[in-house]
Amino acid sequence: MHWILLRGLTREQAHWGSFPARLQEAFPGHQFHAVDLPGTGVHFREDSPDTIAGIRQRVIRQVDHIPRPFSLLALSMGGMVALDWAQQATEGEIQNLVLINTSSGFSPPWQRMRPGAWPRILRLLARRELFDRERDILRLTSNRDVPLELAKRWYSTQRQRPVSARNALNQLAAAARFRPAEKRPLPEALLLASRGDRIVHWRCSAALEQRWQWILKLHPDAGHDLPLDDPEWVIRRMHQWLSR
Length: 244
Description:
By secondary structure, this protein is of the alpha/beta class. The longest helix is centred in the middle third of the chain and has 13 residues. The protein starts with a strand and ends with a helix.
């Protein structure tokens, strides 16, 4: 089984850290492919579309060489891309769907982006001192003590493959406007959310659970970057769900 991993706003595959390797160890019969959104990672010189559909189309072109069907595991804005992909996919193209701390137009704006997060995110995107910005992004997205070495790695990543202000704003616009189609893309999907998420309210995942009768599992205290804060919890929930 081939899994496509998608990160969120202005983040790239390096920000998964050791999580893909942990997934590979936990699911040895599967293959995991971390894919960068346009405007980030190896595609940082490209312009990012300002719609989720446009981002999704570019991501699909990147994975043409990988055999179908796919399973999708996606965090935050990456979850919007994955949900849009699953709704537009041909029959049998998407096998499994795992969405982590994502949101959609089915939820009110103050849940999709908590009121206290908006000014902090805009200030972060405007900061020119790169190390301080990356350290503060970690402090906002994680509820754990952030090791200095991790902040240094994120700083190094952004030095090598910087996300432009224009691409960050395009991604923000795409996320803010996203509303899924009404149809349920798959009979079953796994929703993972953090009660301690200070950016996206967990009720955004609950809205998808209620609308499409999917499975929702809530972490009691992790932050927005759930795979960073508690990767083993994510893996255990995936094991339980895949063996259903």
